[in-house]
Amino acid sequence: MKLYKNILYISFSGLLLISSACSDDFLDRNPQTAITPEVFFNSEEDLALYMYGLLDMPNRNSYLNDQSTDNAATTAAVELKTMMVGNPSSQTITSGWSWSRLRNINYFLENYQKAKVSDEIKNHYVGLARYYRAIFYYNMVKRYSDVPWYGNTLNPSDEELKDPQAPREEVLDHIMEDLAFASENVRESVPTGTPGKWVVRLMQAKIALHEGTYRKYHDELNLKATADPFLKLAEEASLAIISSTKYSLFTTGNPNQDYASLFESQDLTANKEVMLINAFDQSKNISQNVNGVVFGDYEQSPSRDLIQSYLMKDGSRFTDKADYQTLGFVQEFENRDPRLAQTVVYPQWIRVPETAAYVQRLNKNFTGYHQRKGYVNSTVQEVLNGVDFPVYRYAEVLLIHAEAKAELGTLTQADLDKTINLLRKRVNMPDLSLLTANANPDAKLRTDFPKVSGALTGVILEIRRERRVEMAFENSRYDDLMRWNAGKLLEKIPEGMYFQGVGNYDMTGDGIPDIKLIPEGETIPTVREKNALGVNLVYYSIGRFDGTAGVYLKNGSSGGTMVTEIRARTFHEPMFYYRPIPETQMLLNSNLKQPFGWK
Predict the structure, then answer these.
(1) Residue 541: beta bridge partners?
(2) How wide is the angle at C-alpha 72 spanned by C-alphas 71 and 77, nearest 5°?
(3) What whole-number distance in Å separates Cα of residue 441 and Cα of residue 321?
(4) pLDDT for res 155
(5) Which residues of 254-271 are buried (b: 16+ CB within 10 A; e: fewer)?
(6) pLDDT more than 90, % of the chain
(7) CA–CA–CA angle 200, 202, 208 (5° rounding)
(8) Band of residue 297 on the pLDDT scale cut at 50, 70, 90
(9) DSSP one-letter code for 23
(10) What is the mean pLDDT of residues 35-46?
């Protein structure tokens, strides 16, 4: 890892000229002259340097990206929340329509042939460029559906800039062609921290699953009849990775820590579950620390709906418990899927450098829960800044394979045993039974996902639960809800912990009170009540939203769940599954058309 980090740092430095010269949108800039093909594209080193310049991986900020979903509450002005409470238009939503990265990719594809290297070498780097182009274009499709297809480098005077959008189907054909070429030509052995053959196959499976389910569940596209080939490709690409035996789930036999270790490691290079890492090392000036926001008690906090989605340790549903809606924090964590306590801070968790159990800190607009995944429990700067990020995990391959087969209607118990049940075994959870799931589908999940139907309804819903749990706070939930046509779930404002009302509460699970809730308007005394350990209770005033209380509860001093916001949210379908093309771009090209109701 240390060698890789040195190479990567030097490579990016060497490509500073490329990056800075290509940062502006190509619609507004002059033809690229910073790098002349005759001077630069001569050797494999040149091709490799250019590819390093295109390397753009998710990092630890991904732990913050569930703010647009039902997994978290947020006070941030995230795009979708702003849309649901406002009056969005092409004049107010102006981001996203940027093509500079595509220009950089296409520039390489037009000039690589000048390198004096073998076809195998050329095809490897062409494969990487086409892999990056496929990702770029699918992100554009997810945002706008129909988009122009630019297969070559364009300059401001080119007439192609006035072309209308290509249909979604045509763009997807190009994307899958790019990924097919990449999967056949990108090398398996590549520098650590860069995509190789199996990462390309994973991306092929990810995009195919997304597109297949999107077409299946989105009637506005009128493409349902074309969904199955994508689902079949997702099945085949994920199976190829499984059959390669190159990867396996990380486990040491510790079901209460192994999952969490994936997100706390200083070195993931030897971890067989991690297919691509973004490595951090403070000593190499490559560092990142997101503790302040991940663990914060204001901008982001896990939702109660997420906490309730985890099964009981015996495999039964938490939401089948008669009193599940009125259970307090300590009771919510009793006998649950071990991944819950490895994702969210639990009673008896100790925050370094303290020696006593952490007492949840309550606040306005906050759920009361703290996120553990992505938080580094240390005070040492080298440790805080040096945790590696698992960009892609083998766990996702297993989830893709199970879901693709379920959506195709071909899933068997044997398929579950080699996918979902491997994930469950890592945390010592009971196996998912195909027969049991289909015989008794979860009532709450059926309400959440009413478009799921057929003989495999129950198991499809359980696979969706498994995906939510396994991939929580890994920037997966938003795309999942969009492709499942479940945007209406985002109208529900995330809620927090439940409290019965005023009184003393144990927050650490030792049976001894830690906090005291008092009615709004009552003064917090100077001399505070102590608990049996001789520790002062932490006082909070409780009341209704927008009052003077320190904590907002649904029923004020009479109790209820913690309230994070009260502005009504409306998810307009199908409009909000897409974004408008900025008005300025519409004026530049009158042939563009806004997607699905946008103006």
Answers:
(1) 518
(2) 130
(3) 15
(4) 84
(5) ebeebbbebbbbeebeeb
(6) 91
(7) 105
(8) confident
(9) -
(10) 86
How many C-beta neighbours within 10 Å does residue 146 have?
21
Element (H, E) at 3: helix 2-14
* Angle (CA) 172 177 182, round 5°: 125
Residue 389 sits at the vertex; the CA angle it makes with 387 and 392, to the nearest 5 degrees, is: 155
> Are 80 and 578 spatial neighbours (Cβ–Cβ below 8 Å)?
no
Burial of 155 (0-12, 13-18, 19+ CB in 10 A): middle
Q: Does residue 542 contact residue 551 with C-beta atoms inside 8 Å?
A: yes
Contact yes or no for 241/202 (Cβ under 8 A)? yes
Kindly report which listed range (119-123, 194-198, 299-303) carries the lowest average pLDDT score. Answer: 299-303
Q: How confident is the model at residue 37 (pLDDT cuts 50, 70, 90)?
A: confident
pLDDT at residue number 16: 33
| Its pTM surpasses 0.90 | yes
AA letter at 31: P
Q: Which residues does 16 contact at the CB level (< 8 Å), separation at least 6? A: none
Q: Which residue has the tokens 């990702």?
A: 135
Q: Judge whether residue 567 has pLDDT over 70.
A: yes
Range list of β-strands (E), 309-379 = none
pLDDT tens digit sequence for 48-69: 999 999 999 999 999 999 999 9
Measured CA to CA, the distance from residue 590 to residue 66 in angstroms comes to 36
pLDDT > 80? residue 17: no
H or E, element range at 340: helix 338-341
Which residue(s) pair with 281 in the sheet?
286
Lowest mean pLDDT among 81-95, 294-308, 332-346, 409-423: 294-308
What is the number of helices (H) and of strands (E) in the chain? Answer: 24, 10
Reduce the DSSP state of residue 597 to 3 states and report it. coil
Do residues 54 and 129 make contact, with C-beta atoms less than 8 angstroms apart? yes
Both tokens assigned to 221 = 């596209």
The helix (H) or strand (E) run that includes residue 260 is helix 258-261
How many whole angstroms separate alpha carbon 400 and alpha carbon 232? 11
> At 302, which helix (H) or strand (E)?
strand 300-302
Beta strands in 330-438 (DSSP E): 389-393
* Cα(208)–Cα(228) distance, integer angstroms: 10
Residue 193: count other Cβ atoms within 10 Å of its Cβ.
21
